[in-house]
UniProtKB/TrEMBL annotation:
Reduced FMN (FMNH(2)). Its EC number is 4.2.3.5. Homotetramer. Pathway: Metabolic intermediate biosynthesis; chorismate biosynthesis; chorismate from D-erythrose 4-phosphate and phosphoenolpyruvate: step 7/7. Its cofactor is FMNH2. SUPFAM superfamilies: Chorismate synthase, AroC (SSF103263). It comes from Candidatus Magnetobacterium bavaricum. FMN binds at R131, S132, S133, Q264, A265, G309, K324, P325, I326, P327, T328, R350. Keywords: Amino-acid biosynthesis, Aromatic amino acid biosynthesis, FAD, Flavoprotein, FMN, Lyase, NADP. It catalyses: 5-O-(1-carboxyvinyl)-3-phosphoshikimate = chorismate + phosphate. Belongs to the chorismate synthase family. The gene is aroC. This is Chorismate synthase. PROSITE patterns: CHORISMATE_SYNTHASE_1, CHORISMATE_SYNTHASE_2. It is an enzyme of class 4 (lyase).
Length: 401
């Protein structure tokens, strides 16, 4: 990212998570309740683990905001880990506490355990698993809430919903891409899907599919297993022309895919119709261009998912991602003790059965980062009023083109 810089720090069972975001213009209204709302959404979902009963995440603003408005300086947030009280010796930064808990030496297949220890020379896997844990994504969601507030100044809405859990659900929802009733209706439909998803314990807006997903999660839990799934994440209200075709690293689709792929356990990302585009004739899959004085250039379909040539085309951005089953198993898999080299069962850490619902909310934060950076690259501004003025001037230019 060119204009936005985001960093997080903290371990899963450490004292707190810390996040810093730089590049937000001055004057943006920020309230902690808006951040906490997104944190609550991340913690929901059928099949979540015992930690959700312990943590009720709350973000504290440490810097960069005064009297509810950003200062253009770095914004620092803190989320305390309530489980820290049980780990004060085991995760202490002090050398005098070394050895207060036993090391973890049995690597878990599917995790960062083995590669991380070999890379950094650790003989205790806890030095890897504490940071590689998805607990870190709580801070991504908190920082993403700041970006969501920024994007809302321009009428941009971000949302998501789960479409598949294990074998339950659908490959994708055709109505999100091609309903032949115009841009506004496609966007409104996506927003309605996301709102309905927030009422579901599996974040699926379709009741029949949602019940099948609940059943699939319960079955996995009874087996002592885990289950993955697929979700869609979108943004509505984006202007034409974010991103660029002129260099590979400026293409917005690449930036968005990397952002979502950075989420723990995500193994694939599609845009629009995605991989199914390969199975049909091109003449049936290009989003034909129309024009009216009221709407300007527009489309009646969205097979491209709102991106053409690495740039937004004015249609809703629509991405789809697959999350693999969480690799930590209640019935441990075969592994090796990294110290003794003996065959052992993998270590078990408290874990979820299914976290696809949470992953969809995390993905919202990730695309909020990328889109905020793209908006700042396009429209600049040291204060939010300046950015909004530049944006409005661009919209006027599009109308006059």
């Amino acid at each position: 990212m060119d204009r936005l810089k985001i960093s997080t720090a903290g371990e899963s069972h450490g004292k707190a998570l810390i996040g810093i975001i730089e590049g937000i213009p001055a004057g943006l209204p920020i309230e902690t309740q808006d951040i906490d709302k997104q944190l609550r959404r991340r913690q929901q979902g059928h099949g979540r683990g015992g930690r959700m009963k312990i943590e009720q995440d709350h973000a504290e603003i440490l810097s960069g905001v005064r009297w509810g408005k950003t200062l253009a300086s770095p914004i620092a947030l803190k989320i305390e880990n309530r489980d820290w009280e049980n780990w004060q010796k085991g995760m202490s930064p002090l050398s005098q506490d070394e050895g207060s808990i036993d090391p973890v030496t049995r690597a878990r297949p599917g995790h960062a355990d083995l590669a991380g220890c070999l890379k950094y020379g650790f003989r205790d896997i806890r030095n890897v698993l504490e940071r590689s844990s998805a607990r870190e994504t709580a801070m991504r969601v908190a920082l993403g809430a700041v970006c969501r507030t920024f994007l809302a100044q321009f009428g941009i809405t971000i949302g998501s919903f789960v479409i598949r859990t294990g074998g339950a659900g659908k490959r994708y929802y055709q109505s999100a891409m091609n309903e032949l009733d115009g841009l506004k209706d496609i966007g409104n439909r996506l927003i309605a899907f996301s709102a309905k998803a927030d009422e579901s314990v599996v974040r699926c807006p379709f009741e029949e599919d949602a019940q099948q997903m609940i059943n699939a999660i319960d079955e996995a839990k009874d087996r002592g297993d885990t289950i993955g799934g697929v979700f869609e994440v979108f943004a509505v209200g984006l202007p034409i022309g974010l991103g660029s075709h002129v260099q590979w690293d400026k293409r917005l689709n690449g930036q968005l895919a990397q952002a979502i792929m950075s989420i723990q356990a995500v193994k694939g990302v599609e845009c629009g119709l995605g991989f199914d585009l390969s199975q049909r004739f091109g003449s049936r899959l290009m989003d034909e261009i129309l024009y009216s004085d009221e709407m300007g250039f527009y489309r009646l379909s969205n097979f491209a998912g709102g991106l053409e040539g690495g740039m937004t085309n004015g249609m809703p951005l629509l991405l789809r991602a697959i999350m693999k089953p969480i690799p930590t198993q209640r019935n441990p898999l075969n592994s090796i003790d990294i110290v003794t080299k003996e065959a052992k069962e993998a270590a078990y850490e408290r874990s979820d059965v299914c976290a696809v619902a949470a992953c969809s909310v995390i993905a919202e934060a990730m695309i909020a980062f990328v889109l905020t950076d793209a908006m700042l690259c396009k429209f600049g501004g040291d204060c939010i009023d300046e950015t909004v003025r530049n944006y409005k001037n661009y919209l006027n230019y599009l109308k006059e083109f």
